[in-house]
From TrEMBL:
Annotated organism of origin: Hymenobacter negativus
Keywords: Hydrolase, Metal-binding, Zinc
Coiled-coil region list: none
Protein name: Succinylglutamate desuccinylase/aspartoacylase family protein
Superkingdom classification of source: Bacteria
Residue ranges constituting the Succinylglutamate desuccinylase/Aspartoacylase catalytic domain according to the UniProt record: 48-228
Swiss-Prot/TrEMBL cofactor(s): Zn(2+)
Keyword Hydrolase: yes
Amino acid sequence: MPASPTAFHLNGLTIQPGERVLTRLVISKLPSGTVIDVPVHVLRSTVPGPTLLLMGGMHGDEVNGIETIRRLVRRELLTPLRGSIIAIPILNIYGFLNFSRDVPDGKDVNRSFPGFPRGSLAGRVAHRFMREIMPLIDYGIDFHTGGAARANYPQVRALLGVDPEIDAMAAAFGAPFTLHAGLRGGSLREAAHELGKRMIVYETGESLRLDEPGIEEAVAGTLRVLYHLGMGPEAPAPARPSIACRRHTWLRARFAGVFRAHVENGQFIKKGQIYGSVGDPYGQQSVRLESPVSGYVIGLNHMPVVNQGDALLHIAVPE
């Protein structure tokens, strides 16, 4: 595993082994003149070792990752036995202030990497991260949450079967589900992959709502990754083995109307099973929905009013 350099140079600071520093990356200003900066925790051991990034709040309304890192910091669980930890509870401060996924220009930071110093606001946030943080890290966990009214069951997403270290890291996390997920253009994970950095994504819950079981899964999984990397003490094993799935698909609404789910997140359903219904709001007709595949429900739309094409159910097919 790569070893941390003698000193970190970050945001104009020199951070030595054994130091714990909270620094703030200034990104820009609001139209009012208020400075927007990103708090970054740096926690270093005196013993050389790898550097792990913990990233939350890439999308400002995804509060579960933010709360996960907040708890890890607050409970003083991020004291590396070797190497270093860089913890960023909120990258997209703009979205956090506005209860929004995106930055004020409407762009997605996680589709803007590697960014550009004179580009859009999202591109500038991505570029500052790539310049200041990315050169320092070896591994990363990027914490995310489902969209508005769409809840994800706790799951790790990673590019499986390509890099044994990524496979081992995902297995060490021990989320209820481990999904093979290709790289998306402009994402942090793609940018990390191109630079030889190993990164996984953890998803749980829905935006603007705390998912307590999913947050505790995230805390426990992070501690297991730290132990796997030799950076933390032994952590409790997961309650049950992770279910690996190389295939997963969204079932979408064929009709507009009122959607009623007949299944729950995490549940196994069989091909042909009725998983819900869509009816018109006037009580004149209703269509039962059958699953075309057998698999586990890992994402569920809680929005009752749906349009044609809306995602209703995310199904993972076990290996």
